[in-house]
Amino acid sequence: MTWATIDLNADLGEGFGRWRLTDDEQLLSVVTSANVACGFHAGDAATMRRVCARAAERGVRIGAQVSYRDLAGFGRRSMDVPSDELAAEVAYQIGALEVFARAAGARVSYVKPHGALYNRVVHDDEQAQAVVDGVLLTGERLPVLGLPGSRLHEVAEKAGLPVVTEAFADRAYTAGGTLVPRREEGAVITDPEAVVERSVSMARFGVITSRCGRPVAVRARSLCLHGDTPGAVGLARRVRAELEAVGVRVEAFV
To answer: Residue 220 maps to which CATH number?
Structure first.
């Protein structure tokens, strides 16, 4: 499946106190959706407020990037969190971001898990259900952004939540359509030309080449551009420019 329109999202607000990882100001001039860290893997109150204000000014949709409570590991360590506890923590993160989104004259428009939680809910029914339960606790039927065919999307659809399929321009894929774990060599694509080429292929043809060389169908309505890689802003601009040059319309999915 291909799209004439695609959303560009990036993980933003990934700092804490005086430490900043992402160039939020510049990336907000490129992306159409901002996955804002909600304090569990990165982010703090002042950062969330600042990013929400800038996103609202530029018409960028605000998404809650929820995570395991893992500041030290940047949310990339898988954890066995009881379902009721995880659901409460997901709702807590969404609620915290919603305060700052509303203060900026906007709202939280969607939810996207981060890091280890994102990968866990591809296959884990219990953790996927906990994330969905957390979204439902907020009282809002927020769209859930994730990998096509994930357990998260299946559970969300059963609960009546909209789902949005996502692809990654700078991550290697397995032949099964999942992401190669970051601990493995070659998991992150660093060649700018390759990232741009893969982005166009995903948006126009719905296909990506897996690490083993096999073509993989990628049904994506949103394309993620990581903000924590070297040269992220310049690369994001190149990706958007090339997509628009080949006739793909770049706009938010909500």
So the answer is: 3.20.20.370
